[in-house]
Structures are given as structure tokens and as C-alpha cells.
């Protein structure tokens, strides 16, 4: 099976073919390896990959199939892992210059992947310590957004290699993490689907931290149906992933009321707001109820985020541990430029910010008495060219904008999904963000599947990137 063939098949289709003996896990592994060989290092999705190890994992999955062991949806399928996750067979750098000996034991999310005998073909790049939304990393080089063949544009961060690995054909699921948008930003900018889980729903054990109060594990996939199935196969609360997918497939756009948040449409790059409004018009024609909603505290929320929120404070506490001295010394200057202000924040201010966040989250909950989801552009700006981000000032301006709409989901304790709405005037993907209440992950995914049925899959909606 070629990489392009695998890329065109859904997880459901690939899983059926594996169980029917029409393809082998080894075939998919060889397709993933071929895709890596074709596109690396140009796209630079991976910090580390190991073809022999990939083949060995696939052969084990095939042996399990031959012995009539069906261990789960992901058996034999290639799943890339962000380089924050501890994965046996690969070192964890968390985007830093040095491996982390304290992150070698796999946590529950990776164990769920392993228990199904999925194949992990490598560790995808991350922003150093996941501290940034653009996707840049001076230590290991920045992945290239596959939608611009001429200029090196940002892939989105901090899960910067995740969406790239999906389009290059080396994975059908990408493990990421999201503290202020780090799953949804790369998904939006690469034209894939990203799932931000409810805080605390998926364990963070075995994942290098940025902000323990905000970090969430999540996935990126090539379609909303794939996202629903991947989520269900890894989620500890879903008993039957196939039944969950069937439930999602029965959802229809006309069942949902979508609350348009006009603040998210402010200051958008040319074509971004237009693509999302066009998608909403199509959903309205399909019967979805589109209304405007007032989400309280958004200006205050963004101002708090601009001042570092709580993520910067919690990361500073982690990196200032005595055993982290080597890693702190090596921190990229763009990240380090924010340290002095963050480290000067007193404990009383940190506690006040926690209280403020809890209050803002509580005040936002009544919005969902009116709507099933808050909607808007996932990111207000087009993926910037790296050449335009060479100064600290230029980077920080773009970084804050990249995180503006997505950080709402983390600070207000929401779950959500992003999926492609169209292309902007620069020909780059635009995401439509669906934010749902805390704990409503199932609703978010059912809604995303219903929306995708109207708009089309990423490949149908956007076409294919030039790679």
C-alpha cells in the first residue's frame, strides 16, 4: 500500500481492511516509512524516527491479527507522538537540546496506544517545552507548513510536527497536547482536525509539563470521523469506540445551535473570517441554528493571557528546579525573553490569577444554556512566514495572535474541536472552532462529525497541499 493510498482511507476503512486481511500492518508501516523518506527532512515533521522499530511494531500487530487477537481500533495503524510524550524506543527532548531522563516511562495515553498494538513511527517536533503557538524551534529546526511550497510558513505549535505528519502520510493519528491551543493551532494551520479534551479527562502522566493547571492531551486526525474514533479508542470513559462512532454519525447539523462569538472575528487576516462565515452559512442551510452570543470577560481574559496567565508562572517553577539547570541555560532566547517578567510575579498574584480564571469560567457557563457550542475562527491570522518572525517583537506579536481565540477554551475550562472551514486569501487553511462545556467532549465530536458531513472532509474541502 502506498502512502497516498493510506492517506485517502479513513481509520474505519483501514481497520476493516486489516481485519479482513486485505492489507497488513506491515504494509501501512512501509507506507509510513516511505512517506517519511520522501518528505523528511524538507517538511521536518519528526525529531526522531526508526524504520526498523516501526517494522517490528507492525509485525507484532500482524502476528496478533494472525492469532485472532483484536486489541482495539488502532491495532496496526501508524500513530505519531509529540516529543513531550514518553515513548519506549525513543528519547524525549520536549523540544530542548537534551534528552530528559525523567520522561522515559510511558503514561496512560501512550499505554492505551500500546495496548491496541498501534505502530508509533516516530516522535514529532514540538516547540521547546510547548511554550509557544507558532511552532518555531531553533534547536531542532521548525517543521514546514505543507500548504506553502514557496515560503517556509509556520506549522502551528506547540504540536508543530503533528499535523505535518498526517499530511505527509506517515500517521493516521497524531498525539498532541493543548495548554492554550497547541493541538488546535497546528490542526487549523495544516488543515486537519484537532481535539482539545476536557482538562483532567486524559491523564498527563508521562507527558512533559508546561502548565499542570491547563495542560490537556489530545489528538489530531485527517477527518472528524477519524477524530471521533481515535478519541473513543483512547478515552477511559468510552466503553465501545465503534458504537461511539455510530452515534456520532447519526448526528445532524440541524440538531445543534451554534453561538457565533464576534470577538473571535476581529482583526482577522484577509479571508479568515470570510471562510468561517461561508462555512456557517452552509451549516445554516443544512438546518443548524446560528445565533450570536456574548461570552463574558473575553477582553479581560486576553489581557490576563498577554501578561503570562498562569502557564508561564507554572513553567517557570518547573524549569527553575535545581535538576533542570542545564535545560534552563539552553532555553531559546525567544522563550527566555519572557522569563524575567514571569519570574518576578509574586505568589499572591499567581493565586489571584487562579481565582480570576475560576471566576471567568463560572461566568461563562450560562452561555451554554443558549447554545451547544461557541464558534468562530480557530486562529485569527494566516500562518506567518518564518522570515517575518526574526525579531523577538515580531514573534511575540504573532504568537499572541495565534493563541488569542484558542486560549479561551483552556482558561474557560472548555472542550472543543477544530476542523477546516476553507482557505484564506494566502491559500492557507482556516479552522472553524467548536467550543463546548467542560465534560462535553462527546457532544463536541458528534457536532464535528455532523459539521463535516455538510462541509466535507479536509481533503474534500481544501484539496491537497503541495507538500
How does this model look, in words?
This protein is α/β, with parallel strands linked by helices and 467 residues long. It has one domain (3-462): Amidase signature (AS) domain (Amidase signature (AS) enzymes). It has helices spanning 3-8, 11-20, 25-39, 51-66, 108-115, 162-168, 184-190, 224-234, 241-250, 272-285, 298-306, 311-319, 325-329, 333-336, 339-343, 347-364, 392-404, 407-411, 441-455, 458-462; strands at residues 46-49, 79-82, 122-124, 173-178, 193-196, 216-221, 257-260, 289-292, 373-377, 415-423, 429-436. It has an 11-stranded mixed sheet, with helices on both faces. Helix 5 links the parallel strand 2 and strand 3 (122-124). Helix 6 (162-168) runs parallel beside helix 7, helix 8 (224-234) runs antiparallel to helix 9 (241-250) and helix 8 (224-234) packs antiparallel against helix 19. The mean pLDDT is 96.
Write the layout of secondary structure elements.
Elements: H1 3-8, H2 11-20, H3 25-39, E1 46-49, H4 51-66, E2 79-82, H5 108-115, E3 122-124, H6 162-168, E4 173-178, H7 184-190, E5 193-196, E6 216-221, H8 224-234, H9 241-250, E7 257-260, H10 272-285, E8 289-292, H11 298-306, H12 311-319, H13 325-329, H14 333-336, H15 339-343, H16 347-364, E9 373-377, H17 392-404, H18 407-411, E10 415-423, E11 429-436, H19 441-455, H20 458-462
Parallel strand pairs: 2-3, 2-4, 7-8, 7-9
Antiparallel strand pairs: 1-3, 4-6, 5-6, 5-10, 9-11, 10-11
Amino acid at each position: 500500500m502506498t502512502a497516498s493510498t493510506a492517506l485517502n482511507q479513513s481509520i474505519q476503512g483501514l481497520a476493516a481492511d486489516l481485519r479482513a486481511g486485505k492489507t497488513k500492518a506491515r504494509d501501512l508501516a512501509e507506507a509510513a516509512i516511505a512517506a517519511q523518506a520522501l518528505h523528511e527532512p524538507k517538511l521536518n515533521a519528526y525529531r526522531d524516527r526508526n524504520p526498523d522499530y516501526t517494522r517490528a511494531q507492525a509485525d507484532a500487530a500482524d502476528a496478533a491479527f494472525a492469532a485472532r487477537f483484536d486489541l482495539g481500533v488502532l491495532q496496526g495503524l501508524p500513530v505519531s507522538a509529540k516529543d513531550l510524550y514518553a515513548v519506549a524506543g525513543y528519547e524525549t527532548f520536549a523540544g530542548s537540546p537534551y534528552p530528559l531522563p525523567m520522561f522515559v516511562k510511558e503514561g496512560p495515553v501512550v499505554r492505551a496506544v500500546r495496548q491496541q498494538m498501534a505502530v508509533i513511527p516516530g516522535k514529532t517536533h514540538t516547540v521547546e517545552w510547548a511554550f509557544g503557538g507558532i511552532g518555531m524551534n531553533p534547536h531542532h529546526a521548525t517543521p514546514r507548513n505543507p500548504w506553502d511550497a514557496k515560503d517556509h510558513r509556520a506549522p502551528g505549535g506547540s504540536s508543530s510536527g503533528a499535523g505535518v505528519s498526517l499530511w505527509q502520510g506517515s500517521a493516521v493519528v497524531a498525539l498532541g497536547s493543548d495548554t492554550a491551543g497547541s493541538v488546535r493551532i497546528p490542526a487549523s494551520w495544516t488543515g486537519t482536525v484537532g481535539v482539545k479534551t476536557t482538562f483532567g479527562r486524559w491523564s498527563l502522566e508521562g507527558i512533559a509539563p508546561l502548565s499542570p493547571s491547563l495542560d490537556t492531551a489530545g489528538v489530531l486526525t485527517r477527518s472528524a470521523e477519524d477524530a471521533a474514533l481515535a478519541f473513543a479508542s483512547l478515552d477511559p470513559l468510552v466503553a465501545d469506540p465503534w458504537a461511539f462512532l455510530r452515534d456520532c454519525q447519526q448526528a445532524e447539523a440541524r440538531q445543534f445551535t451554534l453561538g457565533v462569538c464576534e470577538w473571535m472575528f476581529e482583526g482577522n487576516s484577509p479571508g479568515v473570517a470570510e471562510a468561517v462565515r461561508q462555512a456557517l452559512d452552509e451549516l445554516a442551510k443544512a438546518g443548524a441554528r446560528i445565533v450570536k452570543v456574548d461570552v463574558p470577560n473575553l477582553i479581560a481574559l486576553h489581557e490576563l493571557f498577554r501578561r503570562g496567565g498562569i502557564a508561564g508562572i507554572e513553567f517557570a517553577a518547573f524549569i527553575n528546579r535545581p535538576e533542570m539547570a542545564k535545560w534552563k541555560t539552553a532555553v531559546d532566547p525567544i522563550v527566555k525573553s519572557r522569563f524575567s517578567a514571569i519570574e518576578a510575579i509574586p505568589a499572591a498574584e499567581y493565586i489571584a490569577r487562579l481565582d480570576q480564571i475560576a471566576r471567568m469560567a463560572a461566568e461563562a457557563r450560562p452561555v451554554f444554556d443558549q447554545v451547544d457550542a461557541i464558534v468562530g475562527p480557530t486562529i485569527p491570522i494566516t500562518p506567518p512566514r518564518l522570515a517575518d518572525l526574526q525579531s523577538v517583537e515580531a514573534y511575540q506579536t504573532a504568537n499572541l495572535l495565534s493563541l488569542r481565540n484558542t486560549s479561551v477554551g483552556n482558561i474557560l475550562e472548555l472542550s472543543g474541536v477544530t476542523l477546516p472551514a476553507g482557505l484564506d486569501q494566502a491559500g492557507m487553511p482556516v479552522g472553524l472552532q467548536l467550543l463546548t462545556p467542560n465534560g462535553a467532549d462527546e457532544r463536541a465530536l458528534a457536532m464535528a462529525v455532523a459539521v463535516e458531513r455538510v462541509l466535507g472532509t479536509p481533503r474534500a474541502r481544501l484539496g491537497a497541499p503541495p507538500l
